[in-house]
């Protein structure tokens, strides 16, 4: 079985509070970008294995989210071992959700391959155990994300009339760096209301809190955003905690 885990962008990202467990609460709009994707293949095998091509994936096999997704399902269902191959295209540490997408699509692929009849809600429950963004990729529809980014409300947002252009500056932004300069604060305006305004207004109303702390340390990312506007973007922003920048044209 071959599936194609896609990227996502964040339209607005507000860090609203720090939790007692060390995580932060956020609010954001997650939007799937189907044109940017990895390729994930699963084949039943005599042993569990993982290989990859494309962008190099750091870390040991057992720490990979695809393997963790398999182990979660295996704990509840008597499924065979699989040989997993991932062709990595979505940049790592870019705010595009590539690792989360791989994990979520792994859950869905196992469900389909072995006809487990796991409900969508249970798949979401599994995904929430793997990472904050993972649950989004189960439904893979535009959503308002809150809490840790793992609670979602589907919203009516259609950007199919626009071209989404993504630029990656080849800079990896780690979670610790991203949050080190953040001062959480409650947002003054409802993001779900702001997103309903004409896109031309978003430049002045919808912000990504991480830009204020990351741009001074990585000015080339801000240059990319400015370039988007100079080239005619109606709206441009860093996505997630960076470092990729997108523009809507």
Explain how this protein is built:
- It is a single chain.
- The protein is α+β, with helices and mostly antiparallel strands and 249 residues long.
- It has two domains: 2-154, Ribosomal Protein S5, domain 2 (2-Layer Sandwich), CATH 3.30.230.10; 164-248, Alpha-Beta Plaits (2-Layer Sandwich).
- Helix content is 32%, strand content 28%.
- It is built from nine helices and eleven strands.
- The protein has helices at residues 65-76, 98-113, 120-130, 136-139, 175-180, 191-194, 199-205, 211-217, 219-230; strands at 2-3, 6-18, 24-37, 39-45, 49-54, 81-88, 143-146, 151-154, 164-167, 235-238, 245-248.
- A four-stranded mixed sheet has the order 1-4-6-5. Strands 2-3-7-8 form a four-stranded antiparallel sheet.
- Helix 1 packs parallel to helix 2, helix 2 crosses helix 3 and helix 8 packs across helix 9.
- The longest helix has 16 residues, at 98-113.
Largest sheet: 4 strands, mixed
Looking at the structure, the CATH topology of the largest domain is Ribosomal Protein S5, domain 2
Strand neighbour order, sheet with most strands: 1-4-6-5
CATH class of the largest domain reads: Alpha Beta
Mean pLDDT: 94
SSE topology string: EEEEEHEHHHEEEHHHHHEE
What Rg is obtained from the alpha carbons, in whole angstroms? 18 Å
Task: Give the total of beta strands.
Answer: 11
How many individual domains?
2
- Low-pLDDT residue spans: none
- Percent of residues in helical segments? 25-40%
Outline of the structure:
It is built from 9 helices and 11 strands. By secondary structure, the protein is of the alpha+beta class. The strands form 3 sheets. It has a 4-stranded mixed beta sheet. A 4-stranded antiparallel beta sheet has the order 2-3-7-8.
């Amino acid at each position: 079985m071959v599936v194609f885990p896609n990227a996502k962008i964040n339209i607005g990202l507000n860090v609203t509070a720090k939790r007692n467990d060390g995580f932060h609460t956020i609010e954001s709009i997650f939007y799937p970008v189907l044109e940017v994707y990895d390729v994930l293949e699963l084949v039943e095998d005599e042993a569990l294995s993982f290989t990859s091509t494309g962008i190099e994936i750091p870390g040991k096999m057992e720490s990979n989210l695809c393997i963790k997704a398999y182990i979660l399902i295996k704990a509840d269902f008597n499924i065979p071992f699989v040989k997993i191959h991932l062709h990595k295209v979505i940049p790592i540490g870019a705010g595009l959700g590539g690792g989360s997408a791989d994990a979520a699509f792994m859950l869905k692929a196992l469900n389909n391959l072995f006809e487990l009849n796991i409900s969508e809600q249970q798949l979401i429950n599994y995904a929430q155990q793997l990472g904050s963004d993972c649950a989004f990729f189960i439904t893979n529809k535009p959503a308002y994300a809150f809490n840790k980014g793992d609670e979602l409300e589907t919203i009516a947002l259609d950007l199919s009339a626009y071209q989404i252009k993504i630029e990656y500056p080849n800079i990896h932004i780690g979670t610790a760096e991203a949050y080190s300069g953040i001062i959480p604060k409650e947002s003054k305006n409802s993001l779900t209301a702001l997103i309903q305004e004409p896109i031309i207004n978003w430049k002045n109303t919808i912000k990504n809190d991480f830009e204020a702390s990351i741009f001074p340390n990585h000015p080339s990312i801000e240059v990319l955003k400015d370039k988007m506007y100079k080239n005619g973007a109606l709206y441009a922003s860093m996505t997630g905690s960076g470092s990729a920048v997108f523009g809507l044209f």
